[in-house]
């Protein structure tokens, strides 16, 4: 099997700059997932690329903390970001575009799906999951588009093998929806709860299989990895 360095083949956006947005709504998708929809005038400058398009997500830790962010995130700007005092430095995480509508009810809309590990009420969730459970309409957030990593050769129809745990679900979903109609292959996705299984848009020749993690103490991704190896 040929191996390709993702850093060499990734497709970067033509222009990547900080977009300051606000929450429109949040809702629970399933036992382990929440979706936050963000809007804002800056989304008019967002270029949807499909597939596994991802972005840097900046969550404010205090009033006005997003104003200290650089407009771009090159090496120098990243070091400047790290130099911000921890009490003022926005939380930085990477997320995949779960959905984009250029003409939503309130203008362009971007969906972000969060895996809910732990509980915000009990203080056992991480900062991103806590934000996803507690954010309110109008809350500020910022993103920086990073493009796509899944860049198969032109005309390739498969067979594809897509394997991941719940954190990879938005990326796998986006990839499946972007594959050519005659694509073939298998997608195997591990989720923590049977209630997290959902319908995905995929070519008829690509089989989608779900692996429900039985032991909550098991390292995420172990079950789907073992299932994929068993079928290799």
From TrEMBL:
Positions of the FAD-binding FR-type domain: 16-159
Q: Matching CDD domains, A to Z?
A: siderophore_interacting (cd06193)
UniProt xrefs under Gene3D superfamilies: Nucleotide-binding domain of ferredoxin-NADP reductase (FNR) module, Translation factors
Classification via PROSITE patterns: FAD_FR
Which InterPro entries does this one have? Answer: FAD-bd_FR_type (IPR017927), FNR_nucleotide-bd (IPR039261), Riboflavin_synthase-like_b-brl (IPR017938), SIP_FAD-bd (IPR013113), SIP_fam (IPR039374), SIP_rossman_dom (IPR007037)
Q: Which GO terms describe its molecular function?
A: oxidoreductase activity
Q: Which Pfam families match?
A: FAD_binding_9, SIP
How is this protein named in the record?
Answer: Side tail fiber protein
The organism encoding this protein is Microbacterium testaceum (Aureobacterium testaceum)
């Amino acid at each position: 099997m040929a191996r390709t360095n993702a850093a060499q083949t990734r497709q970067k956006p033509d222009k990547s700059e900080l977009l300051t947005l606000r929450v429109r709504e949040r809702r629970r998708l399933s036992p382990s997932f929440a979706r936050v929809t963000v809007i804002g005038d800056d989304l008019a400058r967002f270029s949807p690329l499909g597939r596994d398009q991802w972005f840097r997500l900046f969550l404010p830790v205090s009033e006005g903390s997003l104003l200290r962010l650089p407009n771009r995130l090159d090496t120098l700007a990243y070091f400047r970001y790290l130099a911000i005092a921890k009490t003022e430095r926005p939380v930085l995480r990477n997320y995949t575009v779960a959905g984009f509508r250029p003409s939503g009810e309130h203008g362009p809309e971007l969906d972000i799906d969060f895996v809910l590990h732990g509980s915000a009420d009990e203080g056992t969730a991480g900062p991103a999951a806590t934000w996803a459970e507690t954010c309110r309409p109008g809350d500020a957030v910022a993103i920086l588009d990073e493009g796509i990593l899944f860049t198969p050769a032109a005309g390739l129809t498969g067979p594809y093998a897509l394997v991941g745990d719940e954190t990879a679900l938005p990326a796998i979903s986006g990839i499946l929806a972007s594959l050519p109609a005659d694509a073939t292959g298998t997608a195997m996705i591990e989720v923590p709860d049977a209630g997290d299984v959902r319908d995905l848009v995929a070519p008829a020749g690509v089989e989608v299989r779900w692996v429900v993690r039985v032991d909550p103490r098991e390292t995420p991704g172990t079950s789907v990895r073992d299932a994929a190896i068993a079928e290799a």
